[in-house]
Amino acid sequence: MIGMLKGIVEAVGADEAVIDVNGVGYLVGCASRTLARLEPGQPVTLHIETHVREDAFRLFGFLEDIERAWFVHLQNIQGVGAKAAFAILDTVPVSEIANAAALGDKSTFARAKGVGPKLATRIATELKDKAPPQGRSFSIGLAPHSADTGSSETVARKPERSAGGASREDAVSALTNLGYHESLARQAVATVLRDKGEDTPLNDVIRLSLKELAP
């Protein structure tokens, strides 16, 4: 399976791009938000999700691996295919998706084109008690949205997360260690991060979340 492509943007279409990797052009399906950031002739690194079917072999590309992780996570819900998952990622930033999932906020998912009220409700309901996905861990000397074909330097990177991802999980862990149910802890943390911002310091996230959980 293909997990990542690093090459040159050869062409950009309405819902796909061609990435030239050492003379081989890979056709990669991308969300509109991703396509808008690709420029023909420029280097790029795309995190790839490969779908293999009896009649098709498709590649889906993302500039951030956490987007790929959410793309997969959303499709675990009945009725959500690649098209609907892309529509959600195009409409809602990843950090906001995580908050909406924790809060069971169907209105956020309903904003996506092609996601009706019933499907939005199902997405919000099924995601509410599930832990958010985490991106893969890469050891490459490149930012996820750029490539430098002339560089051989490699730098280990921590697993990619959405903004505030570490604070979110650490805060949830702290609250569950205090005896709160994980679903309640995630809702409280999501509320705090939504209101105060994804860059809120961990200690403040925990303190404010405890206020949210107070009777």
Major sheet: arrangement of strands: 1-2-3-5-4
Uncertain segments are 140-163
Helix and strand pattern? EEEHEEHHHHHHHH
Main β sheet profile: 5 strands, mixed, barrel
Mean pLDDT: 83
SS class:
alpha+beta
Share in β-strands: 15-25%
What is the number of helices?
9
Q: How far do the termini sit from each other?
A: 50 Å
Helix content: 40-55%
Rg, nearest Å: 19 Å
- What general outline do the C-alpha atoms trace? elongated
3D structure, described in words:
The protein is an alpha+beta fold. 42% of the residues lie in helices and 18% in strands. The protein contains 9 helices and 5 strands. The protein has a 5-stranded mixed β-barrel with strand order 1-2-3-5-4. It is elongated. 35% of the residues are buried. About 11% of the residues have low confidence.
What's this entry about, in short?
By secondary structure, this protein is α+β, with helices and mostly antiparallel strands. It has nine helices and five strands; from the N terminus they run βββαββαααααααα.
